[in-house]
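Example 5.3 — Leucine-rich repeat-containing protein 14B
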Amino acid sequence: MKSLRFASAEALVSHPQVALQSLDSVAHNLYPLLFKASYLLERVEVIRVLLECWPLEEFRLGALLGPSADHAGDLRDRACRACLEACVRGLADHVLRGRGQQRLQLADLTGVRDVQVQQCPCGRALGRWGRTELLARTCNELQVGPGTAQRSIKVLADLFVTEGNFQVVMQALGPVGPAPLRLRCLSFRADSLDPSQLLQVLCLAGPGELRRLQVVHNVRLHAGLVQQLLAQLRFPQLSSLTLPAKAFDTPPACAPATEGEDPLLTAIAWELSQMTQLTELSVAFSTLTGKIQKLLSPLRTPLRALDLANCCLNHADMAFLADCTHATHLEVLDLSGHSLVHLFPSTFFRLLGRAAQTLRVLTLEECSIEDGHLSTLILALSPCHQLQELRFLGNPLSASALRRLFLALCELPKLRWVEFPVPKDCYPEGATYPQDELAMSKFDQQKYDMIAEDLRGVLLRAGRDDIQVSTPVFGSFDPDIQETSNELGTFLLQAFKTALENFSRALKQME
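Solution (predicted structure tokens):
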């Protein structure tokens, strides 16, 4: 639905020359309307001039693209390259006008969502890494430009920093002199950086304002570095924290912690307890056997999102999770990589029962869930009436078991998204789990298509055509990895080369 006002705005921006000539006579409160219409139709020349002449004190991209009374459509999942480049260029033009009459004080460029399929006319996306580099380079260009120092606009952004854009971001965050665009960060993602680079850039990014911090993949941290990072920067406003694999490993120079004693883990838990806004924590692929209570019990706020995938949890960990305060507040939970139904059936059942009133997203990938476990799984899921997304890839379930599970899932009223595994019937007899990528890809596609069609039929006959189902064999789409895959590959090759050189050097020393 759209109002007559929005339809008029569309008609105007459809003729860019007319629109640009008419801007001087357009009421200031209509600029947001013209901006959304221009973004929808990808009229980049109009977008750029709208930003150059923006007459309001604030420009908030996410709010402008979201649903409104004039236009119900949500354009926040359109990370359109042409439109976003026009926004940043227009912001620079705004600074360079230098007439002193512009009122813009804050440009909030957050709120855009990165999706797999772009709906904009050009179909070309500008991901988070690209947006970071474009904005940083623009800030740097304006720092050295003539006659720009007198204007200062605060720019809020979600930054994604790797080795490839580290230097340009550092210059933008820490200008030598007055900066017409003052870059501030609300959400920060780091990959392919060494620990010293991470600390440097986070110091400049403003840890006091940071809301979300993702340190992923190829940032090599251990427990000592994690404790140092949290102790130095504090992050008082942080609500979401993601740490890379092996982040809780003992530092190389330290002796392994004795049973029941782990001073580094205790120190990390204390630092986390000082983050009074923290509600989301991801520590996947860290060995935390018997340590979950020590890590989570000091937290002052209940967690809404918790990722413990492949953390080697034991009975004590699961018992704590099932009975702790966090369980009744969890909205997003990932327990992938644990044989939950086989090893911890009662505590798993109790955990889902306590989380049932809030749980929206549940991920149970490679949890060794077999046909014989299905009754327990269905019983555990049955009270989860708030569940919207369920992912259980990599489990050795047959077509008949999946059919029975889908019948049960029809009873969950809010469920909208299911990722299910390739049925084991489609693999050669004797296939083992968990599978590597090569084995995972060798299945009977024709047989899979028939089974998938039957499962969709189960949903349709139950009147649940609102549930979308899929089998992303190699995992769900990750826009950040997709965007930086080339740099990530180069980083991995360099790391492999370094490891070989170290190994060769060690062999020579032994000789």
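Remark. The two ends are 77 Å apart (CA to CA).
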